[in-house]
Amino acid sequence: MLAFATLTSSAQKLTYKVKIDGKESGTLIANKSGKKNNFTYVIQSSIKTTMLVTVEVKYNLKSIIENGKLKSSMLVQLVNGVKQTDNTTTVKGSGYVFKDKTGEEKIIHSTINVIVPDLYFTEPKNHKSIWSDNHGKFLSIKKEGNAYLLETGDGQNSKYTYEKGICKKVESTQAFSKITFELVQ
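Request: output the structure for the sequence above.
Response:
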């Protein structure tokens, strides 16, 4: 029985070098473990940069997928040690409850079966929208050549570039800088 469980379970780990305006500033590690329709994503990044002041950002996301659908996720983001984001998405009945750091809850009436962490491990070939725990809503995604543009609605869009189905690069335009994640392994 143990041998069977080992054969049907798998784990993937992707490591990305993070650059801000071309300067190496940290790492992002995306992990996926479990089996076909039941798995867990853990994505962690640590980024440090100096503009006028030193800014250190730590990002931790854990999402649990059961039967191909989101069961729960938790996102915490710290900026210089201060919690900026503390969001959860939890299945409730036929929908979900999204809660942000203020404690405000929003009911999601749609099934969530594609989430942002999926973008690191699988090319989103036939999807038009993806759930974002960071934004607390579905975001539009559209194909552009061998890349996909994830539109946030606030002008801070991200472009995901693929090779053989795996995300090789993410380019994100933020308020005052360009952030790039480049696959190392």
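The chain is about 5% helix and 65% strand.
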